[in-house]
DNA sequence: TTAAATTGTAATATTTCTGTAACAAAAGAA
DNA sequence: TTCTTTTGTTACAGAAATATTACAATTTAA
């Protein structure tokens, strides 16, 4: 069971795109093109997550948010807000009125999907896959543990995130910039060479003697798993 | 054995939803769509708990309640009343006529489930799991006692709730925010560092020499049991 | 009411983690 | 080979997160 997602968004093309893709991912999806009706349908549908357009013809996103948060049955419904580019103040307002995350339009489905999983993982962990594995490596996001060949490995927080990142796309080569963007908290400035050091630390931790090296260096491109 | 639940409710869709979910949870469920018949069937069925709609076409919730309380065989049958939104006076009347709890429609199944467990825990402790255990730790929700290796341990109220929380999902790592949300009463603002102190107190209480530490610190993530 | 227990916070100590710089080693290029 | 570029390794100081302690305020019990 992947969970139920409700969409309130007035641009039919977006709804169609998102709904179709989410259903392909195994979610049960329902949607509404306007706010007032959407609210009613949503409460019947009882989703695990709401995708909410911030600019609707009838009701503003804030109003919907408030309404939802006031209803004891939906107080903790995770909400991801869809906002048009440049409406920076809206983001602030959104986060203040209890939105869990936001995605700026236009967005790629992959980006949205990642956000959805992240939000669901926090609010409703059973809905989302929590173990990442690759060969004899296993990372448990719930218990925050890492195993190589069934032996537990201790990692620092950054090494953990780094490995988690590689495990979401094994084999794929990531540049230092890509790694930096995803693994490090936003608006943090670190030397790109710093990654080398963390790679070293990660290697040191996950390598077992007689077992093959798991992190490959791709000269002038970056690193990848195996 | 999870116990038997009877439902008297005239909206077939609600009955279906609730009955289905309760059966999935292991309860034996029977139901009736109207009051007079429901009363008869109920007495044959001999449930451990009754879910009672307050607004029925034929008999009012109060009448049913009175009838039940007058019957010596069902004097102490726990009743949860289902009431439509805004019927505040009904709640008062309900509680006066011996209802144990009420749930406002529309409700989520999870909410109802929680209420049912809470009511059964009080009235019929054998039906509901009241002991949380993990390795040699045992927490008794009824008597509010905690044991480690069969030796009783004294905990303050907050430490008790904290441990109870960890025991509902052992091994899982919880962030300070999650702990705060669940363990502390709502809309109470406490410093997130305060949790560290309570963790310390809890550790101090449940740790026995020569026995392993039960609470794991996961740097930058939170805490978990073992 | 007094005494005891409980709570939250702030201050301090301790531990662990991070980023960087400096140098070594390796891989390409010429 | 020799030079250049890129990556590996190491050590270390400062930063960040957690542990511990003490204390005042509040609640509960006696």
What features would you highlight for this structure?
Rossmann fold, DNA-binding, alpha/beta, 2 domains, Arc Repressor Mutant, subunit A, four-stranded antiparallel sheet, homodimer, 8 helices, five-stranded parallel sheet
What does this molecule look like?
2 copies of one chain form a homodimer. With 226 residues, chain A is α/β, with parallel strands linked by helices. The first copy, chain A, has helices at 12-24, 35-45, 61-70, 88-96, 109-123, 157-168, 176-183, 194-206, and strands spanning 4-8, 28-32, 49-53, 79-84, 101-105, 131-134, 137-140, 145-148, 151-153, 215-218, 222-225. The first copy, chain A, is built from 8 helices and 11 strands. In chain A, the strands form 3 sheets. The first copy, chain A, has a 5-stranded parallel sheet, sandwiched between helices. In chain A, strands 6-7-8-9 form a 4-stranded antiparallel sheet, with helices on one face. Chain A has a two-stranded antiparallel sheet with strand order 10-11. In chain A, helix 6 packs across helix 8. Chains A and B meet through loops of A and loops of B. Chain B binds a DNA duplex (30 and 30 nucleotides) through helix 6 and helix 8.
Strand order of the largest sheet of chain A: 2-1-3-4-5
Q: Can you count the helices of chain A?
A: 8
Count of domains of chain A: 2
**At CATH's second level, what is the architecture of the largest domain in chain A?**
3-Layer(aba) Sandwich
Explain the layout of strands and helices.
Two copies of one chain form a homodimer.
Chain A: E1 4-8, H1 12-24, E2 28-32, H2 35-45, E3 49-53, H3 61-70, E4 79-84, H4 88-96, E5 101-105, H5 109-123, E6 131-134, E7 137-140, E8 145-148, E9 151-153, H6 157-168, H7 176-183, H8 194-206, E10 215-218, E11 222-225
Helix pairs in contact in A: 6-8
The structure holds a DNA duplex (30 and 30 nucleotides).
């Amino acid at each position: 069971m992947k969970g139920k997602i409700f969409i309130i968004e007035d641009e039919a093309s977006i709804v169609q795109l998102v709904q179709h893709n989410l259903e392909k991912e195994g979610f049960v999806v329902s949607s509404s093109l306007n706010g007032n009706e959407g609210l009613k349908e949503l409460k019947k549908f009882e989703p695990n997550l709401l995708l909410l357009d911030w600019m609707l013809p009838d009701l503003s996103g804030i109003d919907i948010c408030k309404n939802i948060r006031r209803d004891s049955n939906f107080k903790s419904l995770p909400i991801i807000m869809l906002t048009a580019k440049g409406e920076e103040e809206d983001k602030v307002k959104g986060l203040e009125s209890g939105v869990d995350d936001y995605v700026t339009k236009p967005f790629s489905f992959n980006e949205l999907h990642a956000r959805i999983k992240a939000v669901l993982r926090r609010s409703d962990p059973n809905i989302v896959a929590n173990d990442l594995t690759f060969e004899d490596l296993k990372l448990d996001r719930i218990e925050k543990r890492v195993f190589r060949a069934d032996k537990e490995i201790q990692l620092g927080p950054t090494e953990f995130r780094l490995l988690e990142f590689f495990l979401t796309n094994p084999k794929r080569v990531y540049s230092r910039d890509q790694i930096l963007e995803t693994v490090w908290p936003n608006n943090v400035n670190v030397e790109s060479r710093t990654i080398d050091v963390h790679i070293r630390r990660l290697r040191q931790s996950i390598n077992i003697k007689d077992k093959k090296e798991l992190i490959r260096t791709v000269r002038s491109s970056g690193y990848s798993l195996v």
